[in-house]
Design a protein that fits this description.
225 residues; alpha/beta; Arc Repressor Mutant, subunit A; 2 domains; four-stranded antiparallel sheet
Amino acid sequence: MKILLVEDDEKLSDYISNGLKEAGHVVDCSTDGKDGLFLATTEQYDAIILDRMLPSLDGLTILKTLRGAKNHVPVMVLSALGAVDDRVSGLRAGSDDYLIKPFSFSELLARVEALHRRGSVENGHQETTLTAGPIEINLLKRKVTSNGEPITLQTREFNLLEYLMKHKGQIVTRTMLLEHVWDYHFDPQSKVIDVHISRLRKKIGDSSASIIKTIRGAGYIIDDG
């Protein structure tokens, strides 16, 4: 997932961001309400984690603005305000979940991932498995098999394969991979993508490159046809 985190407590923001990245997600961070709203309306995210009390623009105003613009990205509000009326006002402003501070990171992660799955179902785009030839990814369990046999992938390899398979039949450019798998907004001018593609091909038994094809000068494409 690509997640926007809007939290003005920098230590807490770093803690959440690092945990989400370790779990394999791409994270953009903002510590300011206006900047957070700008990112939320100019970038595409799978989920937003939104602090309620923010400088320059509060979280509920951001929520109302997004919903008023018909932006239905799943949003979880974080807040130390835990009274019933506070939670109700957050939900009525348009949040999909409301998590009270302090919280455990494992609960936050589970809730965000559940929000994303629920949002996919409601939008008619439920994907619990992805397939390409003999390769199958179970997105809920984060498991990969080839002809039914399990394949062990590192987090980055899994995210790379998932992104390619979600865009099956489309050319995926280096820039797209760098932004959505590595969270780079620049080209490091290295062979990091080529190395990971090579390792991935070996692990999934794609030595002939029949599934992950290289499109010279353009990028890569998953093709099982």
